[in-house]
């Protein structure tokens, strides 16, 4: 049963709930989960046509699936891009981006503060295939400009960064990329389209780890690239069909439904994060607090402009201590004293998560590399969820009061 087509000019919150393929002949109101690997064809002629023109009908699950299509349509509508293509994980989306955009001999410029696996993918894995990468400061535009070469094909940014929440200027990076004849990709995992829409600042591609806020309840892995239809249909879709970094229909269904509540979750989690960041900033046992929503954040004004006036839901802070061993002991005391938050490495969940970056996400770096990156032994990262913020505050006070 086909619903009426949606009118033009709907708000993003409406698109987040309503965009997708039409309902089946049964008229289900919640989008169906098409848990099937193959699709039956009416006759050989149609089958031949759909194999040659995959966007005109479903054939096999590696190529596409209606539940996955609904997720892609909805995410693209929320990001304001023409199209999107789903992948099995966020890293698979960045792999797909590289496979589609880069050739041997091309050059990539990437912030050195991006997600660790992204750094490895560009430096180590793409390096094997003759792609060269330069890593530059997250915030110093001069470094990005100076890194441009005649063979620069792609600029890759992520904002705010994990765990120190440094914010880069997407519009300025889009200018540098386009002046150089290159493309800009932005990993929008930390803000999601509820806060930040990089395409409006000139980004060409938006990368998502659906595993984080899009799912929002820590259940499944997923990823996506959002961008122009031409790139999605002509370049990325054939690679997914060939290489198989396909999103499973069940996972697509979970993130599709997650998108419906993304806006209100982000609003609530950002408000909780701001309250906790202010509490930490005024705490005598806490050194620096890293949160774009605080006036003390070095890129506060840019963040407010770029992120719909909200700081996101990741807050990091340094406990006070002295030498690295004491700092680590103090950080562990705060983490281990928590009775509500989860000690885990994910983020974007409704459950607040507390982690020690120096021994987990950044544990493989040397102490000097960590110092250079600003990740001290006293640093703690919070991915704030939907619990009452006063309970999280009390959870932190349990440990802080012991220092
Ligand atoms: C988690 C994460 C990724 C990778 O996503 P997966 O779904 O874990 O593969 C990429 N970028 C950022 C910023 C992330 O936080």
UniProtKB/TrEMBL annotation:
Molecular function GO labels: carbon-sulfur lyase activity; pyridoxal phosphate binding; transferase activity, transferring alkyl or aryl (other than methyl) groups
Reaction it catalyzes: O-succinyl-L-homoserine + hydrogen sulfide = L-homocysteine + succinate
GO BP terms in the entry: 'de novo' L-methionine biosynthetic process; homocysteine biosynthetic process; transsulfuration
Annotated GO CC locations: cytoplasm
Assigned EC number: 2.5.1.-
In-chain residues carrying the UniProt-annotated modification N6-(pyridoxal phosphate)lysine: 212
InterPro entries: Cys/Met-Metab_PyrdxlP-dep_enz, Cys_met_metab_PP, O-succ-hSer_sulfhydrylase, PyrdxlP-dep_Trfase, PyrdxlP-dep_Trfase_major, PyrdxlP-dep_Trfase_small
Pfam families: Cys_Met_Meta_PP
Annotated pathway: Amino-acid biosynthesis; L-methionine biosynthesis via de novo pathway; L-homocysteine from O-succinyl-L-homoserine: step 1/1
Cofactor(s) of this protein: pyridoxal 5'-phosphate
Chain coiled-coil ranges: none
Domain of life: Bacteria
Keywords: Amino-acid biosynthesis, Methionine biosynthesis, Pyridoxal phosphate, Transferase
Free-text function comment from the UniProt entry: Catalyzes the formation of L-homocysteine from O-succinyl-L-homoserine (OSHS) and hydrogen sulfide.
Family per similarity comment: Belongs to the trans-sulfuration enzymes family. MetZ subfamily.
HAMAP family (UniProt xref): MetZ
Quaternary structure annotation from Swiss-Prot or TrEMBL: Homotetramer.
Protein known as: O-succinylhomoserine sulfhydrylase
């Amino acid at each position: 049963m086909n619903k009426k087509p949606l009118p033009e000019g709907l708000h993003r919150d409406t698109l987040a709930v309503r965009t997708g393929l039409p309902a089946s002949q049964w008229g289900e109101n919640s989008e169906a989960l098409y848990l099937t690997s193959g699709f039956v064809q009416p006759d050989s002629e149609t089958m031949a046509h759909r194999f040659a023109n995959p966007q005109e009908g479903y054939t096999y699950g590696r190529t596409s699936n209606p539940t996955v299509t609904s997720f892609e349509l909805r995410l693209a509508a929320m990001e304001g891009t023409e199209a999107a293509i789903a992948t099995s994980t966020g890293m698979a989306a960045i792999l797909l981006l590289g496979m589609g955009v880069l050739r041997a001999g091309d050059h990539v410029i990437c912030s050195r503060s991006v997600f660790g696996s992204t750094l490895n993918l560009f430096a180590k894995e793409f390096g094997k295939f003759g792609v060269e990468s330069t890593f530059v400061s997250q915030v110093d535009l001069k470094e990005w400009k100076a890194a441009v070469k005649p063979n620069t094909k792609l600029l890759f940014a992520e904002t705010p960064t994990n765990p120190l929440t440094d914010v880069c200027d997407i519009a300025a990076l889009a200018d540098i990329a386009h002046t150089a004849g290159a493309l800009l990709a932005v990993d929008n995992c930390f803000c999601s389209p509820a806060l930040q829409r990089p395409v409006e600042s000139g980004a060409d591609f938006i990368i998502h780890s659906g595993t984080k806020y899009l799912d929002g309840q820590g259940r499944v892995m997923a990823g996506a690239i959002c961008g122009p239809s031409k790139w999605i249909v002509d370049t990325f879709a054939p690679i997914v069909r060939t290489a198989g970094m396909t999103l499973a229909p069940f996972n697509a269904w979970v993130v599709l439904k997650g998108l419906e509540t993304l806006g209100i979750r982000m609003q609530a989690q950002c408000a909780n994060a701001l309250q906790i960041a202010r509490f930490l900033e005024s705490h005598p046992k806490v050194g620096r607090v890293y949160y774009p929503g605080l006036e003390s954040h070095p890129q506060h004004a840019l963040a407010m402009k770029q992120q719909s006036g909200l700081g996101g839901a990741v807050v990091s802070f340094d406990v006070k201590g002295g030498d690295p061993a004491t700092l680590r002991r103090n950080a562990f005391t705060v983490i281990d004293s928590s009775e509500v938050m989860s000690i885990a490495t994910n983020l974007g969940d409704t459950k607040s998560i507390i982690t020690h970056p120096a021994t987990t996400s950044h544990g493989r770096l040397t102490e000097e590399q960590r110092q250079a990156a600003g990740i001290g032994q006293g640093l703690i990262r919070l991915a704030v969820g939907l619990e009452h913020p006063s309970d999280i505050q009390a959870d932190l006070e349990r440990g802080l009061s012991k220092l």
